[in-house]
Amino acid sequence: MATLGAGKTASIGIRKQKRADLVAEELKRLITQRNLKPGDKLPQEVKLQETFGVSKGTIREALKSLEVQGLVSVSTGPAGGGTIVEVPLDRTFQLMQNYLFFKDIGIADVYTVRRLLEPELAAGAVPHLTEDDFHALEHTIDLCDPASAKAAAPLDQRQEDLSFHDILAAANPNPMLRFCCELINEMLRQLVVFGNETSAKDHAKFGASTVKFHRQIYDAARARDAERVRELMAAHMEDCTHHVTRMNGRVHGRLVLDSEMPRRSRPLIDEHDHEHDDSDDSDDEA
């Protein structure tokens, strides 16, 4: 029988919740030691009970804890148990954004990081962009261009502005750089707002400038000119900083709700079910 807590035997008087926490930690250790991958199954509940010398309720509580963390998917029944899953990206975004809720984050902080990362992200994506990616990039530009017959509503245009950057992120092979930039994009979607004093004209100017840069970046990427893409993206980020500062954009400190998190692993190409915030005093930003 295995002991709990890396060699520490659980005492008789230990609380059930604490015991479940220890089992959850041991299950994480088991996943690591066995190098389990998404789709692999943990031992059945009965086997886990025997292994750790705990009740069915404790095992289920430990599995539920791992499920909440996004590490396993739990099924019930005689053959019930946990299946390893890849931690959902949207849940990771939510945890990171909720962590930042307790920090003093301003719009200038967000754009300082964006100016540093986005040029490298875009340049690194260039060799890996597929025809589907180019089609998706062109589609987002059309939806954001007021002169296009496909132009979306203003609020949806801001979502598509960010989708352009998501497509580039998805094509970049560096997972750390990709994650950081996608996290910032989600922050812009969920947390950055503008006040009522921001005019429709200001939003239109911002949108037109963004479309112009996106078209130039698209053309340079089509030509597989990574250095030109880097230069254009750097200029685009400087321009975005100027517009957001002028429009008094701010980070709206709040915890992100489950219902607000998009459920997707890669930017959409032609679907139109874009999620957005319908609040009266704010708009999303690209």
What does this entry look like structurally?
The protein has 286 residues and is mainly alpha-helical. The protein has two domains: 16-84, Winged helix-like DNA-binding domain superfamily/Winged helix DNA-binding domain (Arc Repressor Mutant, subunit A, Orthogonal Bundle), CATH 1.10.10; 89-260, Up-down Bundle (Four Helix Bundle (Hemerythrin (Met), subunit A)). Helices cover 57% and strands 4% of the residues. It is built from ten helices and four strands, in the order αααββαααααβααβ. It has helices at residues 16-33, 45-52, 56-68, 89-101, 107-125, 131-144, 154-171, 175-191, 200-222, 226-246; strands at residues 72-75, 81-84, 192-193, 250-251. The strands form two sheets. It has a two-stranded antiparallel ribbon with strand order 1-2. A two-stranded antiparallel ribbon has the order 3-4. A hairpin with a 5-residue loop joins β1 and β2. Residues 255-286 are annotated as: Disordered. InterPro entries: GntR_C (IPR011711), TF_FadR/GntR_C (IPR008920), Tscrpt_reg_HTH_GntR (IPR000524), WH-like_DNA-bd_sf (IPR036388), WH_DNA-bd_sf (IPR036390).
Identify the CATH architecture of the largest domain.
Up-down Bundle
What coarse outline follows from CA principal-axis ratios? elongated
Mean pLDDT, all residues: 83
Number of strands: 4
Strand arrangement, major sheet: 1-2
Can you write the helix and strand succession as a string? Answer: HHHEEHHHHHEHHE
Keywords: DNA-binding, Transcription, Transcription regulation
Protein name: FadR family transcriptional regulator
Region (Disordered): 255-286
InterPro entries: GntR_C (IPR011711), TF_FadR/GntR_C (IPR008920), Tscrpt_reg_HTH_GntR (IPR000524), WH-like_DNA-bd_sf (IPR036388), WH_DNA-bd_sf (IPR036390)
